[in-house]
């Protein structure tokens, strides 16, 4: 569904974290499919998907099954967050003030910002390696800087340009990965392509978790890319276009990584395996992946900057951030990430994956609270004006019920964790499988629903406030 604003919307986005009024709404729901499909066919999901056979020693069949199960389950949560965008018209992180309070939301906003800065830094490392693979004379550090500035330009221009690029990328990358699969399957270089690895429960569960967490990692910013759509778009339309695009694109990329690794000798770096497995079309595949990582990485920069702006605006509530503010903060983040990535160790990507697994332990209860609050408690009705007030308006500075559920949601995950910092006793008992995310969701969701419904004083304040944004 489009509006007259679609043709007149400025190329450089003027809004940051503020409410997008009806006259500035534009775009079509199908753009969400292309955004999340094209954006997920990239080196980082390919490298991550290969871990199922490289690290967890699954064979091809069970690796594919685990990847599909993880993305199909995790994608539900991610798409439910996306469906909030048109109704709220504000970024996901600032919306969290309605659940946690103006100050209570700060921890989650900070964690989301750190995670997306990590995503951005990791992707520019992959961009540097991809560019070096295409043109040997370009050193990896130079490729990192080129990739970072390419993503920076896209991120600074903002929302509309990101969607345009991914509409193009969906066709180019979709065709490219299908051709890549075809080449690999007709030029397999190993005798154990179908027999390498085997089913093991811990490895299968770990791969499911990795795929599900990949989807959940988008939750803190997925609705940022649907918030410009007209408010009257159907929730189901927003959900399904996001879900199908993200689950399909991510699954293809994960499986591609697993297939490329199995089609080449044991022990190869994943992207080197991709280059070798795709043979004569390898350089073309690397060019496509390079363009993809630069385009998709703009989302990570964009999300990180919106999180940082939200943090600052919490205390400087009279500040109205502009496109110029967003550009300045983008450049600062970009330069810091370039400095860190150029000086990073060779195992930077591995360290990043470890960091994401740790951060997701504290993001999983947030996603449960946010979804229960939006769909079951308030049914999409929020006072937008209160969200931007320094004292939180009718939501207050802190929401004790949300914070209690959040703390318990983190605590119950600890025995089930398997991270570089800590391995829980339950995880150790099941050979290292990390089920903390599933436990966190199953405990936090009903707990918050019960606590929120018991808070009668809070509900009275809500009834007395001016509500906006209904489903």
UniProtKB/TrEMBL annotation:
The UniProt entry's GO CC annotations, sorted and at most eight, read: plasma membrane
- PANTHER family xrefs: PURINE-CYTOSINE PERMEASE FCY2-RELATED
Q: Does the keyword DNA repair apply?
A: no
| Segments traversing the membrane | 33-53, 60-80, 100-126, 138-162, 168-186, 198-222, 242-264, 327-344, 356-377, 403-423, 435-453
Q: What is this protein called?
A: Cytosine permease
In the record, the note on similarity to other proteins reads: Belongs to the purine-cytosine permease (2.A.39) family.
Q: Subcellular localization, per the record?
A: Membrane
Q: Which organism is it from?
A: Pseudomonas fluorescens
Presence of the UniProt keyword S-adenosyl-L-methionine in the record: no
